[in-house]
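Proteins fold reproducibly. Take a tokenised chain:

. . .
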Amino acid sequence: MAKLRRLIVHCQQHVPYYQRVFAQLGDLNPAHFQIADLARLPILERATLRERGDELTAQGWQKRLIRYSTGGSTGEPLVFYTDKHRESCLNAQKLRARTWFGVMPGDRQVDFWGSPIELSRQNRLRRLKDRWLLNQVVLSASNLTLERIDGYIGDLNRFRPRLIYGYPTVIYRIASRILETGKADSPGGSRWDRQWSPKLIACTSEMLLPHMRAVIAEAFACPIANEYGSRDGGMIAHECPAGHLHLFSDHVVVEVDRPDAEGMGDLLITNLDGYGMPFIRYRIGDRGALSDESCPCGLPLPRLRELQGRANDFLIGRDGRMIHSSAANYVLREIPALRQYQVRQRADHHFDLYMVLHRPLTEDERTRIRTGLQQVIDEPLEVNLIEQDSIAPESSGKYRWVISEARS
């Protein structure tokens, strides 16, 4: 409550958008703010962030802001700002959750993350810092040929990380390969060293589906935990050793908007650490339900009973290699004219890009889109740009921003 009140007072004093909101409400006293008062504040939509981002930025914080862009699960590119304090709190939350499994700061870690486009932006100093100061190695989640997967298995055998972190779809592919090549009569591949196991595999950014969890557990023989957060919403919840998602309630307030009979509804996130651009009652794009039950693990943090997110597809590149769909997002989120998009890779591997635009694309932007998507799969295939007034969600109400009909 103290953190929430400090944030609300800060918004009243420094954030133009909320200064107007409080003025309109009239009788709301930020210094005596209660949890129930959140319901009186407007829900922060992505469209509001786009259209009124300057008003949502704290006055006097411009030099302290860190710019981020994200496509998210909705396929709507978004530029927003965070700050060092919020990012430090996010990293602290991750470290705290990992200690529940015996993984301590500085333990060896391998991340399966990003695309060659994003990883190439990291300079040599950053890579040295990751390896020698953080004891961490980052491996590309893109272009998952069998040769690359076998190479990654060899890397894991040599480095023996206590923590493996990244996209569950990628870790699942590596686990599947370990099980395939673990047979005595299995030709080729890189055999898995059964003399060690990680302390934890933490999955993030995608839904960790039951069949993925089962294969990963069989291959690595260690606990698997789901991490729930996002660039825009921050760190929200983490799975405990008893298998339940715990909300970081000392850093975030989570509401369920218009819950149905089962308690499921849109999740609204209030991040208590972000002062440069406060996120209050932010509709993050996922659905979930809360739980009042205690947990056998003994943690006092409240539980997220159920989470419904979006599992992403792989794109299929030259010679059938699998490319994580985030690679397309890294290209498209840098195009300012895109309000929303959906990439469909057809059976012959070409792309149809459905777009809702803020304004007409320039010729340079058209070229950047086509060239970028062709580079993602390393093939000069056709990229059709299709303008639409809207992009319909799936029957569940969720959007998919990458759909591949191709098969490896």
Observations:
- The first strand starts at residue 65 and ends at 70.
- The chain has twelve helices and 19 strands.
- The radius of gyration is 22 Å.
